[in-house]
Amino acid sequence: MPVAPNDLIKKINLSNYQIATLTDSVKTEKIINQGNLKIDTEKY
After folding, report:
1. What DSSP string describes the chain?
2. 32, 33, 39, 42: CA torsion to nearest 10
């Protein structure tokens, strides 16, 4: 079954969007973890 080019473009855009949101959440997680590390070291 042939796929229309527009459908392909939509799929590619969707996967790029998913990748972007994934990297964003990973970045925020890293920032949160760094903040937690700073708080932990400040305790001692």
Report:
1. -PPPHHHHHHHHHHHHHHHHHHHHHHHHHHHHHHHHHHHHHHH-
2. -140
- Whole-prediction pTM value? 0.48
C-alpha to C-alpha distance for 20 and 40, rounded to whole angstroms: 30
Please name which of 39, 37, 40 lies closest in space to residue 29, comparing C-alpha atoms. 37
31 pLDDT exceeds 70? yes
pLDDT at 43: 63
The alpha carbon of 24 is separated from its chain's Cα centroid by a whole number of angstroms, namely: 4
